[in-house]
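During the no-cost extension, the postdoctoral fellow (Dr. R.K.) reprocessed legacy sequence entries with the updated structure-token encoder. One reprocessed record is reproduced below for audit purposes.
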Amino acid sequence: MADPRLEKWANALVGYSVDVQAGQTVAINGGVSAGPLLREIYRAVLARGAFPVMLASLDGLNAELLRNGNDEQLSYISPVERFVREQANVVINVLSDTNTKRLSAVDPSRQSRFQLARRELFDAFMQRASTGEMDWTLTLWPTDAFAQDADMDTEEYTEFVLAACKLDQPDPVAAWLALRDDQQRLIDWLDGKQEVHVVGPDIDLTLSIAGRTWINSDGKRNFPSGEIFTGPVEDSVNGTIRFSFPVVTAGREMSDIRLRFADGKV
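Re-encoded structure tokens follow.
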């Protein structure tokens, strides 16, 4: 995708989402299909006097490992993985799947082994992020696979993603700051509220939000974003919910998910 908005995209990620500073080490993760954006991110990091570390990967390598690797190989953590989790000051991730169902035939137990081997490293990464020792952000490169999942052609989906990132605005960062202010007004209104009751065609849930903190998701961690969220009191959720839209997780599509909660338990 040759588009002048790519530079705006990279600048928004590097200058707004993670606010890269001179001297920082910045890991850039993404598939080669996202090459045009990865290159612009690399340039933007250089322009800020930081040290970019490009970690572009071939599509499907994880699937190769999960299908063909032995137990030792599944549990092996490379020095590169450790660097990203334990040392990088900033991590910029670009999702760019060319086949979102690639893992559908992989044994779930092998996926579990792979993930469990990385649990401690992931927890350390999140701890570093929570203390401000490092920062990260995640964006999505429009691919044919993502477009198909959205029942859109690739060109239409690309415009959808770029607009969601506010890259169709003269100043995307200013647009995100305006959204932050709008969302903060909602948070201020919710502050001090005790209970939420959500009612709709596929949902009837009550939950307590007493003492909980609301987060203003304004394009920092996820780009794009645009939501406010919190976690309910764990044992307060009661009722039912049905998810009408399918979801793909670990390469498997699930649809028509129905859950019933009783005192926070499914």
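The radius of gyration is 20 Å. The chain has two domains: 5-168, 186-261. The remaining legacy entries will be reprocessed before the final report is submitted.
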